């Protein structure tokens, strides 16, 4: 038993930290947040060279074949830096293809995702805003052995940046009659339209589909067989997001603690007052507890998949509430300056607002925990 | 106990309603021409500076009529009573109590005519909520003061013609060394730097003073009396009733939002916890309104204003945060996008952050009202 | 407009205060709480002589014909002292008979309630624990022009002390087909069985009805016509309870503040620390806000009955949450000694637990506020 | 990261299960005879003092086996491992580190045999959470100390044979002036007064010392080393995992209660907010369990124990309060009566009140972990 990271993982963390500190300090984050691409192609290439884009992909397709625990290490650090990039989206797309795709499909798409030449994402939300298979109402209209897809997918992460859109759609009435198509950027009738995100370090938008044909070679697994795969990719999305939340929340805590040590009022650093000290202590409690919940969930994905969904839901529900509170308290404890563009705390507040509902909000995940508990 | 109004008061309410009926189009225009005309009409009725003494150009109205006037104006979403907000809230009341005849003559009618625009210089970078720790120095040099230092969080500094400025004329006494100066904003040596708020829009300003020379006749009150001058103005009518009207409007919009949003596929208003939360908001806003009326009654009886307004500030602070959070919850995944509700959730109200942080209000109640020892 | 008490009401408050301080200091409260009667017959007689038992009853029947605002003054003080007595029950029973009864019935019962010779109560809860007409499932079995009542009423305040039980029962299927019978203590088949209350200063128990005959002269108003009357008496119960909560919560705050001033830790009175000062300030905010909500509700019962139900529900919902929190924080701030029988704070904690659900808990009343708000 | 156990550890778990299967009837008997037998069997297996060194009579077990042992015992609701709770938790570990050979010989085997019973003298009336402010004096007189003073919150003082007592031997040094004495409870000059808790049942005790003479050989550690002696024992295995097992049991009962209760006429478990609250409890308890496992892992790696246990204390404190409140909500009006749930809601757990109040834990985290200035 060892509930901690291995030495190699600590090493990985130091490498990532070094890369981000050197390549993407906060000024660079701010610059990228205002850029039209929303990320740096140069940095993206470097990530690929360092092997971090295909971290969990099979070696045969250019990956490093590591585990979700390793991914957590990577994402904690990108979250800590608010590193702007389509990393989570691409990781999810790759993991779904590796899970569900044929050898042929893997050979077609995975190397490009691993070597940084292609970006992927998954378009899982529709107008009803219901997460998971039940929310997929877009129906594939059969034509021969292919389907035609028409409709709109909402709040698709990195929709404009992506070269591959994974598009779940409905092929029948039973809740689990779901297929997932891989739609390439240049497909006729498919187009991504960006929308301004509340957190400019995270890009999003709408995917428009107008009679887009998807043949059998574009479907991951047999038609009507991707329901479980969709649930799984959403779980992994929640996990990846929580890993970034840990890093971001810890950073928000750290900069607020530093501020509280320096800022003086009524003759004392404000961190001397319990009205400031105690909320900071509570933030610490929440960050540490979230780490425990999430590390266990990451371990479970690879080692005890049956408990993974509930473990992930616990982490995401807890993360949503905790990070929301950390964002608000962090900026409140900064006083007026937290309100200005100059201080970094506001960037973390925006991230907390974005992360609240992404891959399911607290209510959604607590409902899942309740079901898992037999309630 | 009696919540009814006298015949005269009811007649006054009818007068206000009639005036609004006749003069305020729906929707309310926002053109400068309309506002100019509107202010002129209000001025003609002596409704600007409604409770100021008649001999100073005010309306000589009672507190209760002022309450009626504000309530009716707020219900019809009328523009404010006069456009020189700081002039009416701070400068006028201070001039009436402490100004020389020459100063009153020079400034009061401009404030009432909405032809002046004042800003205020209270906060400084290192003072935060601890206003009395201000450091901007004014040194007497013949018939002039020479001012050096910096103010922060000054609204409308770019547009303002004058600043109502607190400076330190003596360093040994914390409160007693503060003096109030009235300074034209175009005096050489004044520089204004806008502060971008977290939405990237300019909001507040920093104002720098470098060897700014101010004639002694521009001092309001005696040297070292600045704290009294400001606190006297602060103790002006502040029942906080109109704040509750503002919050009611926010709640109405939030209810509309919940009515038109879907949560997990069902109308958000059908969610029991959403409905109860809205009812709890309604209850707290009603408490604010009634707290305000109790304050007003105490003032009518001639009780000196005390720290009661801290109560509504704390209620409001907590409400602003919780209401913003519920709006995001109700928006669902759309909370990831920019939008009016989302921006509101980022732009904290002044009761939550800045000058009157909740912790300061709690200290005020704990120390001044409950008599607990100072920290 | 005057949102405050009149001079006569302040006088009344001083008289009550004097009576309670002299007759029922905390040692006496503790003694009565352990006694089998649960209250002092001697003190009860004195209350009658002082005119406080028939405070709101018509003068013709021995009452003082005062208002609910006066009753609030009385009950704030009994609440502050945790005065053990069947005062609320008797007040409610009297008010229901005065409201709904014939002249004959009033003449029969009211003078006894006003002069202290008889105690009344109302038995409104059944096994389903649903408050109001919908919860009344006990059916009267018609026999001639009378009804036979068989069944059980739960959690009847002062059931064993009472000489008159007001018993709502069902006479038909429509929700509002409710009658209220006055059952006298010596009626065949009726018996009260006490159960240990969590707050020994408040008595409760079960009313057993076994073929109890009630004739037309025992019915308040026409059969099937008492639904509104029942709702009204429950509203008044909630109001009366809130008045006691104000006094009790204020006392809990006061003794905790005194404790925080005296108790030293780490070289300071603990009230010096914001971790203690701030929760106390929040308690103050809640007590004052509850006062505003409740005073308005009490005024509305007499002067603006249409708004009264929602106003009462706001007060009771707020009171349930606020007093719960005040009880918990009060005892937590006392540290270990709060846990002992010796300190009074635990008596207020017990009262807060008892008051939570009495006359409807926060959920019940927020649901009513939501309905009143059109949600 | 690895949550699996080695073959030897799994074998040990099987051994424990087999033992329980064979020796622990269901339901678990509570007779003194059974407990005596049970303790003898545990002792024979060296499971009492499981992680103590073998040469001191302990089991010499690993932390991880100890975790397995405690987990299995807790799951089967077995009685504690040995009955001299304070002896095992405090006195033994302190003796092993600081005791003379004679002291170890005299006390250790009695503790392991469950034939002794220790109580502890830490808190004093004026010290509260500030243990180091203790005032009980011990003055050296030849070969004896003469002890005068008072302790409070001492459990089992009436039954205990010995007290592990902290006294002040020097007043100038706050921590350095404290000494640890082992005193027979039947020494002349010791008086015990039980403290009634708020339910009227005796729980803790006050212990008075008047000229109590203690031989110098009963001093544990050097003079002035008492603080180190106690803190060393405190740093013993305290992962807090077994606390989470205890909380899981409480949650199970609460879920049963919700399953069998009706709220506003419907099963309470069907209320969305009740279900989500239960899921949130489940999540926080899981966080406690996993926090405990992370602590354990750190200890296994040899990291010195730090202040991590404060995290679980804060989580537990908040949970105890919220779970008690939910139980009352679910009980509905029956929460007005005495009963096990209601009493539990009055009897706060030690993490909520008393020695380790949440504010102290927040200070510990804020100051020792986050490095904020002391208040």
Folded structure, characterized:
The complex is a heterotetramer, with two copies of chain A (375 residues) and two copies of chain B (375 residues). In chain A, 51% of the residues lie in helices and 13% in strands. Chain A contains eleven helices and nine strands. In chain A, the strands form three sheets. In chain A, strands 2-3-7-6 form a four-stranded antiparallel β-sheet, with no helix packed on it. Chain A has a three-stranded mixed β-sheet with strand order 1-4-5. Chain A is globular, with a radius of gyration of 21 Å. The mean pLDDT of chain B is 90. Chain B folds into three domains: 7-83, Acyl-CoA dehydrogenase/oxidase, N-terminal domain (Butyryl-Coa Dehydrogenase, subunit A, domain 1); 118-223, Beta Barrel (Butyryl-CoA Dehydrogenase, subunit A, domain 2); 238-369, Butyryl-CoA Dehydrogenase, subunit A, domain 3, CATH 1.20.140.10. In chain B, strand 2 and strand 3 (144-155) form a beta hairpin. Chain B starts with 6 loop residues before the first helix and ends in a 6-residue tail after the last helix. Chains in contact: A-B, A-C, A-D, B-C, B-D, C-D. The interface between A and D is large, with 49 and 47 residues.
